[in-house]
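Input record (Table S2, row 261):
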Amino acid sequence: MLNMHLVKSWLRYAATAKGRHGLHSPFMYRLADKVIYDKTPYPEYGLVEDQRRKLLRDQRLLTLTDLGAGSQYGNRKQRRVSALASNALKSPRLAQLIYRLVRDTRPGTILELGTCLGITTLYLAKAQADARVITIEGCPQTAAVAREVFRSAKAGQIESLTGNFDEVLPDLLKTLPSLEVLFVDGNHRRDATLNYFEWCLPILHEDSLIIFDDIHWSKGMEEAWERIKAHPAVSVTADLFHIGLVFLRGGQAKEHFTLRF
Ligand SMILES: C[S@@+](CC[C@H](N)C(=O)[O-])C[C@H]1O[C@@H](n2cnc3c(N)ncnc32)[C@H](O)[C@@H]1O
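Output record (S-adenosylmethionine complex):
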């Protein structure tokens, strides 16, 4: 079913989005020029996309535990791995953008909320081979397939946790001294999104990158995005329509960008 909210948001976005040449901020210009619009075919892309191709051929039936909001594909409980792989994962173009952003951040610790079958998790891990990568997924059967993917891709640094973000995250955060990348890609509800941001904030710092998926998905997600943009700890934000980037850089005037992607 067509999400009319998303269509209207897209039209608004398309009317205001700028390319790199409309940017006057040196920070954002460098990010756009060297990272967002970087066309280099990194060899890691092929490694991860091989795993996606295997998932697209996998006919096993999974019984899904659905804890989130924002699925465009209905709430059917039984799905084939192949169907999940074709509907629920980030496209190569978007996942590769996330790879480049994370690579540029040089993170020590990366946290992903929403593993699904593990394709973006692999991109996060391949972006910084020596980073600690923690990913959380609420559906046990989906998480089990993701773990097979991590083994097959020899991504031994990924720590895969199973459970509801609301239950797993508070205890996990007590054990982490700092967080350089936070990728929120599940449970697209206004209050949940704001909670995850607030909970992680004490260990995020001025070199951290925070990526929110589906910032225009619903009225609630747009409200969450506006609140995050206005948050006193936030300096720079960028709207790339499907994802929003957040930076907490000190000494930087508060500024928001809408970037064509
Ligand atoms: C959009 S998918 C993630 C896609 C994945 N990052 C990719 O593109 O490769 C979102 C995932 O978050 C999980 N999820 C949603 N709400 C959750 C919650 N409250 N706790 C744990 N997992 C949740 C869903 O089961 C789903 O697999």
